[in-house]
Each structure stands twice: as C-alpha cells, then as structure tokens.
C-alpha cells in the first residue's frame, strides 16, 4: 500500500476501505465509518489539521438495543438504541402490513444523514415519511392519504397509556386499524375501541 505524503498523492490513488482504515490507524484518526467518511478524515489530516481535532462523523456511543414494544413513530433514530436489526425489521413488517420486510439503501442513507448531522430530533416517523417522499410526485395519491391517516392512527394509539397493557402494540394497532378502515366513520383512533374490539385483541394482552 502506497503511503500518501500529500493530499494530491492521496486523491490520485485508489484505496480500499481496509487500506483507509490502516492509514487512519497509523495517523491516529477515527477508524469507523463509511469509506467516504474515512476519506474525509484523511483529507483533513493531509490539509494540515491535527489528528486530535479530527472527530468521528458519527457517535460511537453504545446504547441498549430497543425491544419491539419500545419502538414507535416517535423513537429517535440516533442515541436511542434504535438500529436496523431483526426486531426493527419485524416492527416495520407489522407497520407496513407485509409478511417480510427488507431494509433499503434509502433507509440507510436517511439514518446515516441523521447520524452525520447529529440530528437528535429525527424519528422513526420522519424516516418513514422521507422514505415515502423519496420519489414522491407533487400531487398526493389516495395511497399517500391512507398512509397519512394510518400514521396518525398509530401515533394516537401509542399516546393512549391503556395500550401499554398489550404485547406487540403495533400488531394491536394494525388489528384495530383494519376495523376502522372498513367502517364508515372517521379513520381515527379513540380509546373506546379497546373495549369495543376487546375479543379480537385480548389475546395480545400481557400475562
């Protein structure tokens, strides 16, 4: 591996990520992150910035991973324990009403942007909205309107303290939403639904 001594030498040479990590380690620079982030550390160093002033683009704090029931639309994307793991995959599958859910590249890009910008206000709800707006047309479609109603339904459901009695609360919300969706009434959550549809959802109550 060629060791660059100037910024010009570095930019004119292709380095694999493993080589970038070795360079960062040699110069006491942050060694975690994407290839683009590693490149940025080295470029700053070769431009004259001292190594101790070059900080990781993203926080490496270790948080306890969230359980299924701890994830909701208001869950923060960073510094909360949220990550794209098996639990989150199941949560998104239930949210979108699909049997299997796969994390997409756009989801990773959105989350990484929040990490790089240290946007501690970004939530799972924001992530979903940005996903849906990724290739959005200017005019909202009926499907988008339905999604908007479902989002509000889920938010209101989770705000009701009484729903904490259930395991996998999102599944319960989904069951109730199916009832609301085919009804003639407003597509909103209200507390009395827990009693009205008790037979359908009591199986999900905590033991």
UniProtKB/TrEMBL annotation:
The domain of life for this entry's organism is Bacteria
Q: What is this protein called?
A: SAP domain-containing protein
Q: Which organism is it from?
A: Limosilactobacillus reuteri (Lactobacillus reuteri)
